[in-house]
Every structure is written in C-alpha cells, then in structure tokens.
Amino acid sequence: MKPELNREYPQPDEAELSEKLTALLIEMLEKSYLTGTTPRDTHAKGHVIVQGEFIVDSNLSDELRVGLFAEARSYPCWIRFANTSPRPQPDKKGDVRSMSIKLMGVAGEKLFRDDDNQAETLDFIMMGVPRFLAPNVPQFYDMEVALDRGGVAMVWFFLTHPRIAWTVFTSFTKCANLLEVPYFSQTPYAFDSRAVQYHIKPNQPATSRLPEKPSANFLRERLIEQLAHSDVSFDFSVQFQTDPMRMPIEDANVAWPESLSPYQKVATIKIPSQRCDSPEQMAFCENVSFNPWRTLPEHRPLGGINRARREVYPVISKFRHYRNAAPLKEPAVDGSYPQLAISKVST
C-alpha cells in the first residue's frame, strides 16, 4: 500500500512494545548506575544550558502562520547542549550532539503535562544528524536489547541490520564547536494538517578545529568561552513533507531530501553573551526535562518513534528524578530555578 501524504500508520502492538522498551531502558540504567547520579538514558552528558530568545519571524506567509508561529513574538528559552550517548565520554570521541530547547511563556493546552500543570513551556529536541538510528520502534528495541547483551549479540544485530549499522557508523562523528553545526528534528511533526520536520542552521561559520590535545570537556569549555565574549544565533526552519515515499513519516532512518522540499525559515534563535557555568546552572542542566509531546496540538509529534516517546519519556524522567532526589518541575520565573533574566557580560 502506497502511503498517503501527511498520514500516520500506527501498528497494533505499539503500546505493548513501548512498555517493553521502557522496562528495558530502566533496567539498563539500574545496571549501569548502582549508586551516585543517574543520568538520562540518552543525552547523558550535558555540556551546558544557556539562556536564549526564540523570535518568530514577522513576515511569514499564511501557510507558515500556524500554532506557535501564528503571530510574530519573542519567547525566552533555555537551550541545553549535550552528547547523546547513554554514558558520558570524552568530547574527542565520536558522538551525536543535541540541542534541546524549552520555550517559556507559551500559552495554550499542551499535549503532555506532568504534575506541574501551571507551566507554560514548549519543547524541541534537535539532533546533530538528520537520521534517527533506527527506522521504527521494533528495530530500535532489538538494537537496545543487543547493546545490553553486548558481544556476539551486538555484532550479530549490526551484521543483520546493515542500514542501522551504517547510520551508527556515519552519525557518531567528532565535533569542534557545538555552536557551528546544524541540528535536525529527525522525526516529523504536524504543522496543522501537514507534516514537517524542523531544522536549525547556525549563523556562525564553521571555522573551529579540534584541539591538538583536547580535554575531556573541551566542547563545554569552548562554548562557555565563546559566550563570554560574543552573541550567537541560529535560523529555525520547517521542511514540509511533499513526497510520502521519499519523505516517510513512519521511517525515521530516512533523511528528508532538501531537494524535494527546501527549508523555510520561521524563527531566529538568539543566544546573547552570558556566563553559564555557575554550579546552580550546571545542576539545572542536569535536572531539566524535555519531552517532544510538551507542545501545542497544532505541532503534534508524528510517527512510531514519537508515539513511543509519548509513553517512554515520562516514565524514564520520573525514574531518573526519583533516583537523584531531584524535583520534577518545569522552570519558571519564581525562584524554583535560575531566573530567566539574560545576564550580559560587561566589556
């Protein structure tokens, strides 16, 4: 059956598989971290979280004025940069980098709300490569089982899943500067009645090089140093699905070609010069939670990977915060978390 444009195709066993995946990920965390801080199951190494501004463009066409982008306005935001491997490792190693964004002051009912019903927040989770590691939840679950078992099981899985093996091989790359690389949503989202993917393009040229003798945390150190002296910015764009075969909703292992549908800019992300290395802010970087379902109905996450995230993310987040004796609360300008006033560095 040929898929239709902008349409999902859920499978009947998704709920059961999401439960099995959740249980597996919690079991892996329990085995890996018997004591001490329990990090995320992915995005485990947070480099830093910074304050920024998400500015919706004022000259959008009618087809782009949807949901969050319906009117020109600015939202303060928190932006967390991270490595996505499940165990923290030195920055010189190949990894997939991520940029997670939490907008503040977004009114309207959200598709996901945890125990904090007063928060007006909206999340984006963006990755440094355009493809998700697996095409769907069944293969992602099988990959996690193989990685948990290790050895022959892991080797056999990648030998029998060459497309996933190639994606892993090409995705885990070295990075010289987190502020100079693009980021992708990897999975699709609704844009009213249409499907899109999100894209972030840096406005800083990619001029940085890897240090000759990099420290274990050189990406964090470079970001802190750069923001101490300069502002940075990114373009936030949407890419409409125009071909249901070559731009699938249910196969997250396929990158949507820009040749079929160009990126259309809808907002600017500005990160002003600031200090972002206080112990309180680093603790916030560790404890803050992101969920792609914390969004408006007009931007509902689409596809099997996102449907699994709806079930998995809240359980993993509650487990992690409970283990770390950390409050599970959305940030607000009420003293519970660092204030959202932008802290410029004096010159």
Explain this structure to me?
By secondary structure, the protein is an alpha+beta fold. The protein has a single domain, classed as Catalase HpII,  Chain A, domain 1 (Beta Barrel). Helix content is 26%, strand content 20%. The chain is built from seven helices and nine strands. Strands 1, 2, 3, 4, 5, 6, 7, 8 and 9 form a nine-stranded antiparallel β-sheet that branches. Strand 6 (189-191) and strand 7 (194-202) form a beta hairpin. The longest helix is centred in the last third of the chain and has 20 residues, at 304-323. The chain is globular and about 55 Å long. Residues 339-347 have low confidence and may be disordered.
Our Rg estimate from Cα atoms comes to 20 Å
Q: Report the sheet with the most strands, covering strand number, pairing sense and barrel closure.
A: 9 strands, antiparallel
What share of residues is helical? 25-40%
Question: Counting H and I runs of at least 4 residues, what is the number of helices?
Answer: 7
Q: Would you list the SSEs in sequence order as H and E?
A: HEEEEHHHEEEHEEHH
What count of structural domains? 1
* Uncertain residue segments: 339-347
Global shape: globular
Q: What is the CATH homologous superfamily assignment?
A: Catalase core domain
Q: Could you say what the CATH architecture is?
A: Beta Barrel
Overall pLDDT: 92
Q: How much beta, percentage-wise?
A: 15-25%
How does the helix and strand content classify structurally?
A: alpha+beta
Number of strands: 9
> According to CATH, what is the class?
Mainly Beta
